[in-house]
Amino acid sequence: MPTLFLKHRRTDLLELMDDSDCDLEMLRETYRQFTTVNGLLSGWRRAYKRFIRPRLTDGCSMLDIGCGGGDLLIRLAAWAAADGVRVKLTGIEPDRRAVDYASGLALPENVSIEAKTTSDFVREGRQFDIVVSNHVLHHLSTAELTAFLDDSKQLASTLVLHNDIRRNDLAFVGFLPMWFFFRNSFIVRDGLTSIRRSYREDELLEVVTDDWDVIVMPLFRNLLISEP
Ligand SMILES: C[S@@+](CC[C@H](N)C(=O)[O-])C[C@H]1O[C@@H](n2cnc3c(N)ncnc32)[C@H](O)[C@@H]1O
Q1: Model's pTM, two decimal places?
Q2: 70-81: per-residue pLDDT in tens?
Q3: Ligand 1 atom with the shortest distance to the CA of 31
């Protein structure tokens, strides 16, 4: 369905959680609530079954870039364990506040989080079988996106999957009732901003190189995929 109102990306709008001076308690509550919101809306279970699980082998490694509060790492660890596969999961996150929050959680022993950037990892020659991210693409400028995608391909040996919101009027309207459920956090304000900053499928295809594919997923998601 075409977007009638959210025709253009609003890259001028900034998310409250990106403000280095934002309220720390609200931010920590935002990380906490990400677990529920991502679980309901981000569609990772579907992406895991279709793209990740067929490639998992004992001892393989996964990287979550911009892992925020760490909920995707915890979920991936649980799904792989339930499938009887031993995996090692690493998260990187440049925001020290997110790393502090996630490090305070009871992380599974095969999950670790580092306060680094993708360029640090590329410089260090780090390699992972599978590289993923959730809700990072819409944060980046076009130049940052290009560098981010190049880095993610260099870090991965078999698969890169970047999952992000697909901009759509219905996604915006459908997110409004979240006001009733998610209070004392930036979830709703930043969620609506994220929808307005995010790409439509055609826009994303326009800014990436030919070795990337965009897969349209339910619940207004774009999956940007590459198999290095
Ligand atoms: C909306 S949060 C999403 C966090 C988490 N992935 C989730 O889905 O809950 C976006 C995260 O991307 C991180 N980020 C922004 N630019 C980044 C970059 N260039 N490399 C890695 N992470 C980045 C931010 O620090 C922020 O924590």
Answers
A1: 0.96
A2: 999 999 999 999
A3: 9
